[in-house]
Structures are given as structure tokens and as C-alpha cells.
Amino acid sequence: MYDLIILGAGPGGYVAAERAGERGKKVLLIEKAEIGGVCLNEGCIPTKTLLNSAKHYSHALDSKMFGVHTENATFNLEEAQIWKNKVIDTNRKGILYLMDKYKVEIVKGTGVFNNNGTIQVGDTSYSGKDIIIATGSSPFMPPIPGADSSSVLDSTDLLEITKVPSSLVVIGGGVIGLEFASFFSMLGVKVDIIEMMDEIAPFMEPEFAKNMRRAMKKVKFHLGSKVESIDGNKVNFTKKGKDLSIEAEAILMAVGRKPNITGIGLENLDIEMSRTGIVVNEKMATSKPGIYAIGDVIGKSLFAHSASRMAEVVVNTICGDEDSLDYDIVPWAVYTHPEAASCGLTEDEAVKRNINIKTATLQMRISARYFAENGMTPGLCKVVVDGDTDKIIGIHLLGSPCSEMIFGAALIMQSGMTTLDIKHTIFPHPSVSEVIRETVLAIEQ
Predict the structure, then answer these.
(1) Residue 153: enclosing H or E segment and its boundaries?
(2) Calpha distance 414→121 (Å, rounded)
(3) What's the sign of the alpha-carbon dihedral 10, 15, 18, 19?
(4) Which of 59, 305, 337, 429 is catalytic?
(5) By three-state DSSP, how is residue 348 classified?
(6) Distance between CA 64 and CA 42 in Å, rounded?
(7) What is the pLDDT of residue 444?
């Protein structure tokens, strides 16, 4: 009998195992593939590693304005893939070290729930006082005629290629689609994005999404367009009643992800489900006592860091400590060139909640450091404030290195800081982060 059994060893599962093991719990971690889950092996880490390689190449080509001249700069995808694999392997070893340190038992195989609540892996049955379902998600493949063409790839497939395609059509203008479009366009690939909505990244402030498109000059965007079929290497779509088509060497299907809820015996548990995944309460508890679910499988916040924080909530709850997750202050980042990041409510979200708000938006280049390092590359900072309490409820950024700054926004909102608190806080100069304080100062009192 284990204190805790965890199904899935992604950033939710392995963090839960680490935290529980650290607190002396007897933990079993079950994973059918590689430790680290999709994030480490097929998602977050490999994409960011390859994007970094492409950014180095892009900087080499565009460095003349900074007094740096390079000749005959080339990009070698095979070598970039070797570095990507080394990064994955090193991180995987790091996780295994932690599992060993905290005496977490690891079983490789597919875990399936039995009728009695135990978990079957092969011929062996395991039981635990508490169980966490952390099985993650997989790329969603919509029922588009021809989507099974050999030229259609999902994000996992595209991460393994060793030859740069001459052209790429990306179906979907969300995070995954944008990051791959940014990566390949920086390598000189002809990239088209087909997006059904009228704007990319619907979770982003509209002005920021528009500026991101402007910054990604080498990508052609087809907004308000519906893919009707795929014929080999040709994508057929409609836009404003017109029939259009684009041919490309490769086609990326990036229209979202689906929770991994099949093949694990959930039907034997009679757990409450929704359209987006497993239903949980604020403690990540399912409708079945002693069984919790975290990460993509619940469909609430599809970020690795959300899964990790959910894991901590569960472990703390099991150990008798009060804890919960505030979904309003989960930060996100898109690692395109330029980057985008946000935490808290957008202006539209705040208005829909009938919050009396005040906002200000400034160009990133008011920061001397941002301008020195990025020139006229589009960059914005927007701050949303609750006009009644003066608390900051949203900070939105466009422009590198905002992915490294956004934790500060989360801390500001987690701490309930007001505009006055920010005015009394010293930001280092010169730094890009100064733009947050300057934007707060620009809000009318």
C-alpha cells in the first residue's frame, strides 16, 4: 500500500512525487513513456531549445545595426537537434536524481484503474491511500478531410525533423502554431498561418496580438479562415466566402490539445467529467474520494507551471495544509520573436466582470535598455488596475525578455499590491522591467 500513487510523470506528476517524497510519503510514480512527460520530451523544453537556436541565427543575420557583422551565417538543424536532445537528456537525468533522492518508486507502463480503485500495470496491481491522475494531453486532430495525409504533422512530429522544409502551413494561430511559425520563419522558411478566428491568440490583449503579427513580418496570416480539406500538400480553405488554397512542403496541425482520459479505466470509477476533461474542485479533488486530477487532463489551465502548482495543492491538502490555486493569476508566455507574456485579467475580462478599471499602455522602447537591445522591434506594456481598490489585476507584455519578467507580475498580484506600492518600489536602471513601473505611473488617478 502506497501513501500516494501518481499516474503520469510530467511536470504535474513528477513535482507531486518530489513534494510528497520530500515529506516522507511512500510514493509510486507510473509513466508509460519517458520521465518528464510531454513538456520535457515533446513540448516546452524542446521547442524553446530550438527557438533559442533560431533566435541566435536571426540575431547573427540582423546584427549590423549593433556593429556586429557576420558573413555566410548558416543554420544546421541536425546540430540543433543534437543540442535539443542533450538538453532533454540532462533534464531527464535531473528529475530521476530527485526521484531517487526522495525514494520515489517508478514503474514504466500504462496504468489502468480497476473496479476496486486499484491501478493495474501489466500483471501487477497497485493500491494507494490517495491517487493523482496526471496523464496530460495530446495534439487534437480535427475531422478535416485529408488530415491523415503524410504531409500533415502534429507538434511532436515536427520536433523530430532533421531537414528544414521549404514551406510550411500552420493550421491554428494559438501558442503552438505561433511558436513553430516563429521558429521556421526565422530560418527563412515560407510560413502561412490559417486561423479561424479574426485574430491570433484570443487569450491575448487584441492590440498586443496585432503588434505581434506586425513583428512576425516573414509570416503571412490568413485570419477569419476555415480549413475545408487537405489534398496531399495543399490546404483548401474559405475566407469571406472565397475558396482559397495554399501548397506547402509540410503542414502543421496546431488547433489545440485533448485530455488523455481514454485507456486508463476511468469508466470503472464513475468520475464526473466535462467537455474539457476531469471535473475537480478547488483542491483538485475529483468526485471520487481519494482521487485527484491535475494538469492538462482537467482542461482548466494547460501550462506546465499550472500542473506543477496543482501538484503542490494536492500534496499540501493530503498532508493537512490549507492550499488552493487562483486561476486568475497564472502567468503565461509565448516564446516567439518577439515574446509575449501576461498575468491576470485582460481589460475585456475585467469589463465582463463589471470591475471598475483604469488602464495604461506604453511602448517598451521607453525603456532605454529595451531600445538599445531591440531597436524598433514592437513592444508594449499594459497594466490593468481595479479602480475601487487600486490593486493591480493585470499586467501584459510584448517584447523580449518578458518571459523572464512575468513572474514579477504574478508576485505583484499574489501579494495584492496597489499602484502606490509599485510607485514606492525601486526598479533597477537600466532594465526592461522599468516599463512596468512607468506604465503604472501613467495611469490616471
Answers:
(1) strand 152-153
(2) 40
(3) negative
(4) 429
(5) helix
(6) 35
(7) 79
Residue type, 59: H
User: Is 59 tagged catalytic?
Assistant: no
Looking at domain 2-138+258-325, its CATH superfamily turns out to be FAD/NAD(P)-binding domain (3.50.50.60)
For the chain, where do the domains classified as CATH 3.30.390.30 start and end? 328-441
What's the gap between Cα 439 and its chain centre?
Answer: 26
Helices and strands (H and E) in the chain: how many: 13, 25
- Check if the beta carbon of residue 270 is closer than 8 Å to that of residue 259: no
* Alpha helix positions (H), 155-228: 155-158, 175-186, 206-215
pLDDT score recorded for residue 270: 87
345 contacts 384 by C-beta, under 8 angstroms: yes
CB atoms within 10 A of CB 82: 12
DSSP state of 285: B
User: Which one-letter amino acid corresponds to residue 358?
Assistant: K
Amino acid at residue number 136: G
Q: Return the exposure string of 53-68: e unless at least 16 CB atoms fall within 10 Å of the residue's CB, then b.
A: bbbebbeeeeeeeeee
Q: Kindly report the length of the chain.
A: 445
**Which segments of the chain have a pLDDT < 50?**
none
Q: Which fold has domain 152-255?
A: FAD/NAD(P)-binding domain (3.50.50)
108 burial class (0-12, 13-18, 19+ CB within 10 angstroms)?
middle
3-class DSSP state for residue 377?
coil
Query: What is each CA distance from 396 to 350, 364, 380, 392, in whole angstroms?
Result: 13, 11, 8, 11
Amino acid at 124: T
Answer positive or negative: Cα dihedral of 124, 125, 130, 133. Answer: positive
The helix or strand, by DSSP H or E, that contains position 39, with its residue range, turns out to be helix 37-42
Q: What single letter denotes the amino acid at residue 88?
A: I
Output the CATH code of domain 328-441: 3.30.390.30
C-alpha 290/C-alpha 119 separation (Å) is 13
Query: Nine-digit cell at 74?
Result: 548558416
